[in-house]
Amino acid sequence: MPPGGVPPPPPAVPRVACPTCRTANAPSARFCQQCGGSLTAMACTQCGTALQPGAKFCGQCGKTSA
User: Fold this and answer.
1) What is the distance between the terminal CA atoms of the chain, rounded to a whole angstrom?
2) What confidence tens digit (pLDDT) does each residue in 13-52 have?
3) Contact indicator for 33, 47 with CB cutoff of 8 Å
4) Cα(41)–Cα(34) distance, rounded to whole angstroms?
């Protein structure tokens, strides 16, 4: 224990922000604990590029991610 008797704070746990509601989630979470939105990247059905969670269009070819 450091001088003064106060223990140091625990190390910060990395979090993943939901692209829909911005809630912090555990890095291993696949869905948001607040809104249920997907936290995992999907692939574009036209060109195969990884899409960021919440993306409406592919940044590589422009196809909608519906």
Assistant:
1) 54
2) 789 999 889 999 999 999 999 999 988 888 999 999 999 8
3) no
4) 18
Q: What share of the chain is helix, strand, coil (3-state, %, to 5)?
A: 0, 20, 80
* Prediction pTM value: 0.57
Take residue 3 and report the two structure tokens written for it.
């001088």
Tokens representing 23 are: 């809630």
Strands in the chain per DSSP E: 16-17, 24-25, 42-43, 50-51
- Residue 49, classed as helix, strand or coil, is coil
In angstroms, the CA 40 to CA 28 distance is 10
Structure tokens, 12: 């910060």
